[in-house]
Amino acid sequence: MGNSYDGKEDEMYRNFCEVVTSILDSCGKDEDRLVVKATAQWPDTSAGDSSMDKDTNRQRPDLMIYPTTEAAQKAYTLSAKDINNSRGKDRAHDARTSWAWSLLPIELKSDEHRERPFQFSVKGFHRSTKSSDPAVGLGQISEYAWNVMRWQHRQFCFMLVVCGRFARIIRWDRAGGLVSSSFNFVDDPTILQNFLYRFGHMSREERGYDPTVTLARQEYIDEMYSCQKELSTYQQQRFAKAFPKETERGQWPIYEVCMRKEDVVTPSTINCDEVKKSASRLGDDSASGGPSEGQEDERAKYLRFLIGKATFISSSPTGRATKGFVAFDMHLRRLVFLKDVWRVTNVPTELEVYERLWKHEVSNILTPICGGDVGGSRSPGSPSPQTTRTQEFVKKQSARVHFRLIVYQVCKPLTEYSDSRELVCILLDAILCHHDAWVDAQILHRDVSVGNILIDVEAMVGGNEMAIGILSDWDMCKYKEDLDKGAAQKQRSGTWQFMSALLLKDPHKRHEVSDDIESFVHLTNWLILRFHPHNLSGKSHRQLLLDYVTLTYDKHISKDGADVGGDQKLIHMRNGEVGFYPKAQVLEDLTRSLAEMCKDHYATLTSYTQRLEGREDSKTPTLIVGKPQGPPRRLRPTLRSTDGLIEPEEPRQQPQAPRQQPQGSPTLANHEAIFKIFTRTLEYGSSGDKGTDQFEMLWAVSTSAGQKRSLETPEPLTSQQAKKAKGADTREESSGVRGGTPHTGSLPVVDEGAEVE
Fold first, then answer.
1. Are residues 476 and 525 in the same domain?
2. Which domain holds residue 230?
3. How many CB atoms are closer than 10 A to CB 99?
4. 399 and 535 together in one domain
5. Which of 155, 281, 351, 706 could disulfide-pair with 371, CB 3.0 to 4.6 Å?
6. How far apart are CA 453 and CA 470, in angstroms?
7. 508 and 649 both lie in a single domain
8. Is 107 helix (H, G, I), strand (E, B) or coil?
9. Cβ proximity of 128 and 93 under 8 Å
10. Distance, CA of 3 to CA of 592 (rounded, Å)
11. 62 occurs within a structural domain
């Protein structure tokens, strides 16, 4: 046996498969039996060619332990065509990679492999080398953990990494990975045998599955499909994407998600028609805690939601790990949206934030109908919610709790706006929401980005259905009273491409309302660059466009342990430059006006910006002191007509700027300037000037230039050096409405679990 592990990886496959098989065969009955398969040559092809799934198509661990259910076997068994086209003769253990059914990935490396992630045969953990090879190996197994928890509904997962005669066991959750000591399984196979034997006898929950999510019962699936024709035209379109045809069901199974009765939002908290409809699932006795005993079985299914293919999944195995699903509400018999995250414990939940926003009548927000921590209960003596455990062994690592939120609206992503006029309307709606949240509810969003602005195409305004802009994803926000208390974590939050120049240049800067307003400017320019004609458009300018986008939105360096960037943004902001020239007059005027606004703002911060550029020593200014400012509520239009905005009433007098602010009046300290610019832009008619996605063609340019990440698919900066799969380094983008940190940036983004001062 020992000699089998002294050679190359492919020579190890057969022997290790036989060892694992002998142990698993002793573990259970036929229906519970597990199998190990060699998957190194057979990628997961179920994902197709969508940008969300390109990376999955190429990642494949050496071995995989699978269940032997009919659906699982259908997903991983090789076809006769596959076998006939294969080069090798011995295919007894071969199977296709199927992340949807993976129980335990196993990675095999020879003892001399340069990319082994850890030390194995000697004392110590990290390899002492200046090479980046260990980081590559660590990134590879991180990708495997990400895929398991991406495709499946997991609390945690196990992994086995073998290097020659030695192995380590890893337990991954959303706070990180716990790695066992290295053990020699050839000289002493006890540890390996015990682990695999116990793994074979574990329940699904013990293997890391979320018990609140199970494969949907066929009667529920049938009931859902019977309602499909009753949905609106838009919801039918979303239904087709969310719930694949039966031929794809093996890779994207339909699950039912169970929510607790206490998770249902009631009219006593948020009083609106949508919440009233949802709360009716509790019956007339909702005030006393739920249905009577005789009604329990029938009403139970109304606390269940069916989900299929995700619209968005985070690109990291750790952190908030946001997932988004278009879900079918068994009670409302319509589509809703389900957001699944792992939150930090010392900040308000997103449901609590929405309750505060609704209490202060903030406009253009989503309507939560259900939400709470998963697996726990507010009742005394009840089990604790699902919580990570890695932080128990890693200093300064925060615990994360599984949280689920369901909202009534199913929206379109901002990138699907029809033309420049609709873009301006949607962004104006989001700006108004941001203003209301800050002035009325005293909540600062802190992650204004392309992915967090949505289009509600079925909103009712004045009795008419129309599209409105929604500012979503408030799980990175902070209340004004908490802004001076410091960060829940020591990293910045937000999406790198859209963060203000000052936040990128100064990792210690407190996040302020001016930073969020500047983010609206950056995302406006970014969308124009992506979808509208400009002087960098066309095949002949692809490299120029790539260079500009990379320099402006992506470039960063590591300084004193922090990622620092924003040099080009700071130049644009300080000088009032746009950097490119839109061909549509409306967009040229818009970008110039926004640039002048930012120039006026930065003119009051000269000494601070000079210090950031190393030209002068000065203290970081505080732009927001005292009461929040912004365009008053009466200045905000409540309806939008076909001719533009209804004439706003005269604004009330604004409070005086606090003396602690820098000399001058920082323009972005309130929303008035940006509000006026976007309102004035609505005087232009519809132009129909939106074109094709110009960032798609940049992927070929960046690949040929040796860059590993598409402009469409950013990844956390903290892991950029460690990411390498067997074949590709791309990431998915959001394919629909979603939550959490967006993946619509151009290259890297800040670690999505970060919190910021």
1. yes
2. 213-345+368-407
3. 25
4. no
5. 351
6. 6
7. yes
8. strand
9. no
10. 70
11. yes
- Amino acid letter at 254? I
Residues 14 and 120 in one domain: yes
On whether both 146 and 23 belong to a single domain, the answer is yes
Total structural domains within the chain: 3
Q: Where among 178, 201, 224 does a domain terminate?
A: 201
Instruction: Looking at the structure, tell me whether residues 337 and 311 fall in a common domain.
Output: yes
Contacts of 726 by beta carbon, 8 Å cutoff, 6+ apart: 40, 58, 59, 60, 140
Report whether pLDDT(719) > 50: no
Look at residue 257 and give its three-state secondary structure: strand
CA 636, CA 431: separation in Å to the nearest integer? 10
* Model pTM score: 0.84
Residue 30: Cβ within 10 Å count:
6
Tell me 52's DSSP state.
Answer: T
Q: How far apart are CA 645 and CA 82, in angstroms?
A: 61
Q: For 508-533, what is each residue's pLDDT tens digit?
A: 888 999 999 999 999 999 999 999 99
Is the domain of 38 the same as that of 187?
yes
Average model confidence (pLDDT) for the chain?
80
Rounded Cα distance, 233 and 228, in Å: 10
Write out pLDDT tens, residues 383-433. Answer: 789 999 999 998 878 899 999 999 999 999 999 999 999 999 999 999 999
Residue whose pair of structure tokens reads 């940008």 in the numeric block:
51
Contact indicator for 364, 435 with CB cutoff of 8 Å: no
Task: Determine, yes or no, domain membership for 455.
Answer: yes
- By CB neighbour count within 10 A (0-12 exposed, 13-18 middle, 19+ buried), where does 752 fall? buried
Cβ atoms within 10 Å of 738's Cβ, excluding its own: 29
Neighbours of 428 (CB within 10 A): 25
